[in-house]
Specification:
Order of helices and strands: EEHHHEEHEEEHEEHHHHHHHH
Keywords: Cell cycle, Cell division, Chaperone, Cytoplasm, Isomerase, Rotamase
Oligomer: single chain
Number of helices: 13
CATH class of the largest domain: Mainly Alpha
Radius of gyration: 32 Å
Organism: Cohnella lupini
Number of strands: 9
Catalytic activity: [protein]-peptidylproline (omega=180) = [protein]-peptidylproline (omega=0)
Function: Involved in protein export. Acts as a chaperone by maintaining the newly synthesized protein in an open conformation. Functions as a peptidyl-prolyl cis-trans isomerase.
Structural class: alpha+beta
Strand content: 15-25%
Domain PPIase FKBP-type: 163-243
CATH topology of the largest domain: Trigger factor, domain 2
Length: 429
C-alpha cells in the first residue's frame, strides 16, 4: 500500500492511497462470504451458492461496495499513520478505482489538527489572588445560610414582594386569542427569579391575594416560538397565595441547628476556616487558568471550526445534564429564556473556541516537553474513577477500551501534565 499526503489549505489536505490488488482479492472474498448469506438462488440453500454461479447471476460488481466497506477503514487508518497526520473530522472519500484484479485507489480530503507555533510558556509571571477572609465575607456566608434555612410562611394579607414565593393562575392571549403553552394553574413562582419573560414577575409585585390583573408584555425578538417572537400579548393573572421567608435568628441555637457546634462564635470560626480553604483553592485555580491563558495568547494557531462545533455539542450536552438535575429540560429552558438551540450555541461559541485553543496549545507543550503518560498513571486514574462510580477498575477499563475512551483518557492526562508543567515553571509576581 502507498499513501501520499498533500496539503491544500491550512488545516486541510488530500490523502491519495493505493491498495495492492491482493488485498482487493481478500476483501472481495470476505464480501462474498457476507453477501451470499442473504441471497436466494433456486436450487441452493442460503449461504451455499457457489461463487461462480453467484457471479454469473449477480455479477462480480455486486460485491464491490461491501468489499470497499471492508477494505476502506483499515486502509485509511494505515494511510494516516504512514502520512503522520492527525485527522479531526470524518474524511470526504472519493473512490477512483476498484475492481477484480485491480489495485484500490481512493482520495480522502482530510481536515487535520492545526500546527501550533508555541511562544513563551516557561517562566511566565502571574500574580496570585488574595486568599484572606474578611469579617464581611463570614457575615455574608452566614446570611446565605440564614436564607437557606428560612421557613416559608403563608402570608394572610398584604401585597406580593420581590423574593416572595407565590402561587398564580395565568393565561396568555395574542390578539385576544389564547396561545399554546401560555396557561398555568397554581403555578409556583418566586418573584425575582427571572423564570418568566422580562417584565412579568415585576408586574405581579404589588398584587393582593385573590387579586386579578392584566399584564401587558412583549415577547423578546429571539423568542423560541416564532409565532410569539416580538409580539405584544396580554396575560390574565390571579394571585392565589403568598409565602414569605421567615429568617431564623443568628444565635447559638442557630449554630446548634445547622452544625455540630454549640455556639455561634465557634461556628463562625469554622466558616472562616472553610472559606479560607475555598479561597486558597479558587486562587490556585484562577492563577492556573491565567497561566494557561498567557501561554495560549503567546502561541500562534488557527482553530478549525469543526473542533469548535464538537466542543459546543459537548457543552450543550453537559448543560442539558445539569438542567435535568434541576428537574428541567432544554425545551422548558428555551420556553422560559426565549432562546432556541441556535441562539444558545452562538452564545457558547466564544467559550468553546477558547477551550479548544487552550487544549491545542497544551497538547503542543506536552509534545515539546515529552510529557508522556505511563500505564501506571492510567491505572491510577481508573482507580480514582472506580471509587467515584463504585465499580471495579478492571470493569471500567474494559468499558472504556470497548468504547475507545482509553485513548482520550490518556490525552486528558497528558493535558493535565502540561498544565502542571506550566504552573511549576511559572513565577509569582
Amino acid at each position: 500500500m502507498t499513501a501520499n499526503w498533500e496539503k491544500i489549505e491550512k488545516n486541510v489536505g488530500v490523502l491519495e492511497v493505493e491498495v495492492d490488488a491482493e488485498q482487493v482479492t481478500v476483501a472481495l472474498d470476505k464480501a462474498f462470504r457476507k453477501v451470499v448469506q442473504k441471497v436466494n438462488v433456486p436450487g441452493f440453500r442460503k449461504g451455499k451458492v457457489p461463487r461462480g454461479i453467484f457471479e454469473a447471476r449477480f455479477g462480480i460488481e455486486s460485491l464491490y461496495q461491501d468489499a470497499i466497506d471492508i477494505l476502506l477503514p483499515e486502509a485509511y487508518t494505515k494511510a494516516i499513520d504512514e502520512a503522520g497526520i492527525e485527522p479531526i473530522d470524518r474524511p470526504e472519500v472519493d473512490v477512483e478505482q476498484f475492481g477484480k484484479g485491480q489495485t484500490f485507489k481512493f482520495k480522502a480530503k482530510v481536515t487535520v489538527k492545526p500546527e501550533v507555533k508555541l511562544g513563551e510558556y516557561k517562566g511566565l509571571v502571574v500574580p496570585a489572588d488574595d486568599a484572606d477572609v474578611s469579617d464581611e465575607e463570614v457575615a455574608a456566608e452566614l446570611e446565605r445560610l440564614q436564607q437557606r434555612h428560612a421557613e416559608l410562611v403563608v402570608v394572610d394579607e398584604g401585597q406580593a414582594q420581590l423574593g416572595d414565593h407565590t402561587s398564580i393562575d395565568f393565561e396568555g392571549f395574542l390578539d385576544g386569542v389564547p396561545f399554546e403553552g401560555g396557561k398555568g394553574d397554581n403555578y409556583a413562582l418566586e418573584l425575582g427569579s427571572g423564570s418568566f419573560i422580562p417584565g412579568f414577575e415585576e408586574q405581579v409585585v404589588g398584587l393582593n391575594i385573590a387579586e386579578e390583573k392584566d399584564i401587558d408584555l412583549t415577547f423578546p425578538e429571539n423568542y423560541q416560538a416564532e409565532n410569539l417572537a416580538g409580539k405584544a400579548v396580554v396575560f390574565k393573572v390571579k394571585l392565589n397565595e403568598i409565602k414569605r421567608k421567615n429568617l431564623p435568628e443568628l444565635d447559638d441555637e442557630f449554630a446548634k441547628d445547622v452544625s455540630e457546634f454549640d455556639t455561634l462564635e465557634e461556628y463562625k470560626a469554622d466558616l472562616a476556616s472553610k472559606l479560607k480553604d475555598r479561597k486558597v483553592k479558587d486562587a490556585e485555580l484562577a492563577r492556573e487558568t491565567a497561566i494557561v491563558d498567557k501561554a495560549t495568547d503567546a502561541a500562534e494557531l488557527e482553530v478549525p471550526q469543526v473542533l469548535v462545533d464538537t466542543e459546543i455539542d459537548a457543552m450543550l450536552k453537559d448543560f442539558e445534564n445539569r438542567l435535568r438535575q434541576q428537574g428541567m429540560n432544554l425545551e422548558l429552558y428555551y420556553q422560559f429564556s426565549g432562546q432556541d438551540e441556535a441562539a444558545l450555541k452562538t452564545q457558547m461559541q466564544t467559550d468553546a473556541e477558547k477551550r479548544v485553543r487552550n487544549n491545542l496549545v497544551l497538547e503542543a507543550i506536552a509534545k515539546a516537553e515529552n510529557l508522556d503518560v505511563s500505564e501506571a498513571e492510567v491505572d491510577e486514574e481508573l482507580e480514582n474513577l472506580s471509587k467515584l462510580y463504585n465499580r471495579p477498575a478492571d470493569e471500567l477499563r474494559d468499558i472504556f477500551a470497548a468504547n475507545g475512551y482509553l485513548e482520550s483518557m490518556g490525552a486528558d492526562l497528558k493535558v493535565r501534565k502540561a498544565v502542571k508543567f506550566l504552573v511549576e515553571n511559572s513565577k509569582q509576581a
